[in-house]
Amino acid sequence: MATARRERFVRAQLAWMLGATLVLVLLDALSYELVFVVSLIGFLVVVELTAPVAVTPAWRRRLLWLIGGGLVAFGYIVVRRVLDILPPGVF
């Protein structure tokens, strides 16, 4: 039972990532940063939509580390983008 739920989670995440990449290719907006951000958003959505009601399995608790790392990387991307937009004399 737990293996089936885990496989469903992985399949949903892979489907989201492939679909997002395909849409970005079709829109001619493919970049590593956009793929990462859209995949992170999809990951967070899939985590919430597949969350169990009563008991949290150990493999789902480990997802918190992945979410934290993703949010740190997202913060880095945002800071880098903001610094690119600011005029050169600000920082």
Could you characterize the architecture of this molecule?
This protein is 77% helix and 0% strand. The protein is an all-alpha fold and 91 residues long. The chain has one domain. The termini are far apart. The mean pLDDT is 91.
Helix content: over 70%
Structural class: mainly alpha
Would you identify the regions where 5 or more consecutive residues have pLDDT less than 50? Answer: none
β-strand percent reads under 5%
Number of β-strand runs: 0
Distance between the termini: 54 Å
Computed Rg: 16 Å
How many helices does DSSP assign?
Answer: 4
Task: Chart the SSEs and their pairings.
Elements: H1 2-26, H2 32-49, H3 58-61, H4 63-85
Helix pairs in contact: 1-2, 2-4
Brief overview, please?
The protein contains four helices and no strands. It has 91 residues and is mainly α.
Task: Name the descriptors.
single chain, 91 residues, transmembrane, DUF8044, transmembrane helix, membrane
